[in-house]
Amino acid sequence: MLKDVSFGQYYPVDSFVHRMDPRLKLVFLIAYIVAIFLAKNFYGLGACLLVLVLAVAFSRVPVRKVLRSMKGILFLVVFTAVINLFFYRGEEILFSWKFITISKEGIIFSIFLVLRLFLLVMCSSLLTYTTTPVALTDGLESLLTPLKWIKFPVHELALIMSIALRFIPILMDETERIMNAQKARGANFESGGLIKRAKAIIPVLIPLLLSAFRRAEELGDAMDARCYMGSKNRTKYKKLKFGWRDLIGFLLVAALITGVVLLRVYLGATI
Predict the structure, then answer these.
(1) From start to end of the chain, where are the E strands?
(2) CA-angle at 134, arms to 142 and 57, nearest 5°
(3) How is the chain split into domains, by residue range?
(4) DSSP state, residue 72
(5) I want to staple 69 with a disulfide (CB 3.0 to 4.6 A). Which of 26, 125, 180, 251 is the partner?
(6) 207 Cβ contact partners less than 8 Å away, ≥ 6 residues apart
(7) Ramachandran bin of 88, using left for φ above 0, alpha for ψ from -120 to 50, beta for the remaining angles
């Protein structure tokens, strides 16, 4: 399961989506999430899914890698769907036993919720697959530039978020390496109850924390050796520029939000 964590991973390839401005990609992600929550019927989610399919196709990222990101939150998706399925109060009851009630409306709502979570995870994963951590830092810093007027440390915040995002797959690989070493020494992480499994994780956490602190110290020393002084007198090697690809993306997202709103107004909600 640790290999399925896609957040922070970058898929290097030359594509339409990779060449888009990182500032616009961040804005597009926010707008896409807004469109997902504005959708109140399956037609609206279908429009969001169509845009996601187009984005994946133009990004040239393998569909299998994008879908693999769902495995990390599969338990959360299933748990949420089951809770809504058993406890959603609908009018057309299909099954009832004690405090558990399954209705037609509950089934529809559970499917709708799973699709919404699916789209949320897919679009977020696609952003990290098509944008380097450095580009994300530059884009986020540029978007938050107005906060500099109130002396807010925009550059430092963007750098912290970028480093945290980049360290996610590194820590996952480190965790898997430690667990494999523990298994070679006879540790068992898969059998027993919940409490026993939790206790088995403790020998993994200690070396993982030590490794994280060591990496943080090495990163700090490397930044000091390169005379890093934060945003003071700092220049950019690459200047962010808007292009025709960004205009096409803007028109597509604008059309998506307009379509979702119209579908919500004229077709109403699913439930």
Answers:
(1) 93-97, 100-103
(2) 95
(3) 1-153+238-271, 159-230
(4) G
(5) 125
(6) 178
(7) beta
